[in-house]
Amino acid sequence: MRKDDGYKPMMARVTAIVKESPLIKTFRLSFLKKDDGKSFSFSPGQFSMFSLMGTGEAPLSISSSPLEDKYLEVSVRNVGNVTNAMFRMKKGDTIGVRGSYGRGYPLENLKGKDILIVAGGIGFPPLASAIEYMLDNRDDYGKIWILYGVKEFDDLMYKKRMKRWSLAKDLDIIVTIETPCTEWDGCVGNVTELFTKLKINGRNTAGLSCGPPVMLKLVTSGFRKLGISDDDIYLSFERMMQCGTGKCGHCNIGDKYVCSDGPVFSYSDVKKMQEMVW
Amino acid sequence: MRNDRFYSLKKSDLQKFIDHLTKRLTVFAPVPDGRSCNYRKLAQGQRVIIDHCTNTEFPPKSVFLPEGEVLLEYGKGDRVSERTPDDRAAIFGIRPCDVHALLVLDKVMLGHDRVEPHYKKRRDNTLIIAVNCTRAGENCFCESMGTSGLEEGFDLLLTDQGNHFHVEAGSGKGEKLVSENRKLFTPARKEAKRPKLEYKKRIDTKNLPGIMMKMFNSGVWEDVAKRCGSCASCTFTCPTCYCFNLVHDADIGDLDKGKVVREMDYCMLPRFSRVAGNFVFREPRTERVKQFFYHKLVYGKRRDGKFHCVGCGRCITECMAHIDITEEAKKVRDVYEKR
C-alpha cells in the first residue's frame, strides 16, 4: 500500500465461506478490482484492516498463503461488532480491506531452522499463513512442529487444513483441548503441557506463537526451557487498533507501537518493554 | 542570524493585517471565552485582542485534527470516497509552546514512514502566525521544556516591542504575506527584544526518561492514581495528545449511506485499550495514569526525539484533583535520588 494512503479500503467479494465451528468462520475473498489484487501483498503475521461500512473496522491477520494470488482468507471468531456483522455475510457480499500493516514473522531469516509453532484459540490464522508459506517452500525449513490448543471442542478450527498439512514430510501436529468432552479422544490440557512430548534441539529451533496474553507468557517460558534463544522466539500481540498505521495511538506498549513495530515481536524486544505486556 | 527576514508592524496596523487575512482565509485566533479564551474562526472585521489571556483554554490541535472530521464517505454499490480538506486557513496568535506541540504532532502524523493525509493537508494549508508571550501563566513551565521560544515552525512570528511588533518571517509563505502588505510591514534590522519571563513552575528534564523508566513500578504512580478521577481533562486539553478513533456513522434515513469520522480518544478512559471479548489492557487506573505521564515525559522523547510535553500547563489548570505534572516529576526524581 502507498505510504500516504488514507483510510479508503479496497473492496473485496466473499467467494466462499467455511463454518469452522459454531463460533468461527473462514471467508475467502477476492478483490473486485484486478489492480487492487495485484498491488495487495502481505507476509504471514502482518495484519490488515477489514471494514464493513456502517459497522466498523477490525485488524485481522490473513490465514492463506502469501503466495496465493487469486484469493485471501480470513478467519474470525464472533466476539465483537465487526466480527458479528461478518458472521452475517453471505457469498457475494463485499468487505473493505486496507493494508497490509506491521511486521510479521521473519520467515526469510528462519530458513534452515526447525520451527515450533504454538497456536492458541483464534490466534491460529497468522500462524496458518506461516505454515502454508513454509510448506510452499518446504526445503527451506527443517522439522516443523505445530501445537494447537483450544478451550472447548467448539473452538477447533482448520480441521481440513491440518489434515492436509499432516501429509507433509517432517511435520507433526498435536492438538489439545482444555475442557474434556465425549467428541474428543485426543490430548486434554493446556497447550504448554505438550512441550514435554517434544524432542527438540532448541539451539536450531525458532518458536512462533500467537494466542491470548496468558498463553503467550507460558509459551515463552516453555520455549526458553527448550533452549530456544530469545532472538528466535516470535510472539504476536493483540491490542486495540483504529488506524493500523501508527497514528491513532491506541496500541502502544511503552514506546513501541504494536501496529507498526509489531504485531510480531521477538522476545528479545519484549523483554525490554517495561509496560505490562501480558 | 539573517536579519533580512525582520520587519516591524505598528500596533495600530495589526487589525488591518488581520482584516487582510480574514478576507482571504479562514482565520483562527484566540477570542475571549468566559474567563479564558479559545481559538475561534474570526468573522470578517472581527477585532483581535492579542493579550487577553496568556494562552487559550483548549489547544489549537483541533484546527489540525478537528473533532468529528469526515475522513470517508460511503454509499450504495461499494462506493467509498476519501474526503480531503481544502480549507486555506491561518492560525493567528498561537504561542511558542503550542507551535512546538504542532512540531510534535508532525513527528507522529507525518513521520515513521507514513503520512496521515488529512492532517498533512491541513498543515500544508494553514499559515502559522505565532506570537511570543509577554508574561507567563500560573502553570506555564515551557522554559524548562525548551519550548518558550521559536527557531522554526512559524510563517510569521510577532514579538511585542511596546508600540510595535517585531515580525520575523520564518518561511517563504511568511515572506509572501509581508510582501502582500508592504504598507504595513517595514524592514527592521535587529532581533526582537524579549524580556525574561518569570516562571513559577518547571520540570528538571535532565535524565528524566531514564529515571522514570527505573521508577516504573514506584508507588508514586499509585499515589497519583488514588487522586485521579479518570476524567481525561489532561488528555483532552493536552496540545500533543492526538489519539483518535475511526467511527462509522451511518445515515439514519438511508443505512446504505454514511461516513467515517475521526473522534478523539483519551487513554485515561478504560475503554481506550479495550479489545473484542471485553479485555482491557490498562484496567487499573495506575496503568492509565502512567500511560499519560510516561507518554509525555518518556515514550515521546524515545520514539520521536522530542518530549510530548511542551510545558503549556493546561493539564495542571484543568485537573479537578489538582494533579500537577511538574510536582509529580519532581516527586519521582526525589524518590529516585533518595532510594
CATH top level class name of the largest domain in chain A: Alpha Beta
Spatial strand order of the main sheet of chain A: 10-9-8-7-11-12-15
Query: What's the number of extended β-strand segments of chain B?
Result: 14
* Major β-sheet profile of chain A: 7 strands, mixed
Order of strands across the main sheet of chain B: 3-2-6-7-8-9-1-10
User: Total helix count of chain A?
Assistant: 6
Largest sheet of chain B: 8 strands, mixed
Structural class of chain B: alpha+beta
Helix content of chain A: 10-25%
SS summary, helix count of chain B: 12
| Overall residue-averaged pLDDT value of chain B | 95
Assembly state of the chains shown: heterodimer
CATH superfamily of the largest domain in chain A: Nucleotide-binding domain of ferredoxin-NADP reductase (FNR) module
Which runs of chain B of at least 5 residues are low in confidence (pLDDT < 50)?
none
The proportion of residues in beta strands of chain A is 25-35%
Give the termini separation of chain A. 31 Å
Question: Number of DSSP strands of chain A?
Answer: 15
Strand share of the residues of chain B?
Answer: 15-25%
CATH topology type of the largest domain in chain A:
Rossmann fold
Structure description:
Chain A is α/β, with parallel strands linked by helices and about 280 residues long. Chain A is built from 6 helices and 15 strands. In chain A, helix 4 links the parallel strand 8 and strand 9. Chain B is α+β, with helices and mostly antiparallel strands and about 350 residues long. Chain B folds into 2 domains: about 170 residues, no CATH class; about 110 residues, no CATH class. Chain B has an 8-stranded mixed beta sheet. A 4-stranded antiparallel beta sheet of chain B has the order 5-4-12-11, with no helix packed on it. A two-stranded antiparallel sheet of chain B has the order 13-14. The longest helix of chain B has 20 residues. Chains A and B meet through strand 4 and helix 2 of A and strand 4, strand 5, helix 4, strand 11 and strand 13 of B.
